[in-house]
Amino acid sequence: MDVRNQIIPIASDHGGYEMKTYLIDNLKSIGIEILDYGTNSTESVDYTDMIHPLAKAVNDGKYPIGIILCGSGNGAAITANKYPKVRAALCWNIELAKLARQHNNANILTLPGRFIENETALEMVKLFLTTDFEGGRHQNRVEKISKIL
Ligand code: RB5
């Protein structure tokens, strides 16, 4: 998938705010259109307040792909994955970001803002935005995710 001509929504709490700002600046500078869902400072907030609107918009088909962050990434990913059409993958390195697209058809990249380097996060985002789902044997597995017992 190459989504460089799409709008990419991004959201974080205070724990991901500085990394979010870095990503927005750098992605804009290479021509990627980014829509910021907040938060807008390092003041403490509840990650749910920013993540729910972004996840709902991806779930509704408004954007094919999104980026979310919090300090650990866990709160953001758990919240986003409440939406049935969202597959939010918490990734810590470049290989995991690539695999999340190739094997899981993840549509939201989740980053642990307090635990990885900004430069790594930027490379992960670039890869996530340009890597295709492999389909094949993974298609069936992805379809089975929503078939809870
Ligand atoms: C905020 O202190 C922190 O709890 C949050 O960013 C995140 O790590 C939650 O999962």
Poorly predicted segments: none
Could you say which overall geometry the principal axes of the C-alpha atoms support? globular
Percentage of helical residues?
A: 40-55%
Q: Which molecules are bound besides the chains?
A: D-ribose
Relative strand content: 15-25%
User: How many structural domains does the protein architecture include?
Assistant: 1
Which topology does CATH recognise?
Ribose 5-phosphate Isomerase B, Chain: A
Across the major sheet, the strand order is 2-1-3-5-4
Would you mind describing this structure in some detail?
The protein has one domain (7-134): Sugar-phosphate isomerase, RpiB/LacA/LacB (Ribose 5-phosphate Isomerase B, Chain: A). Helix content is 44%, strand content 15%. The chain contains 6 helices and 5 strands; from the N terminus they run βαβαβαβαβαα. The chain has a 5-stranded parallel sheet with strand order 2-1-3-5-4, with helices on both faces. The protein is globular, with a radius of gyration of 14 Å. The N and C termini lie far apart (32 Å). Bound molecules: D-ribose.
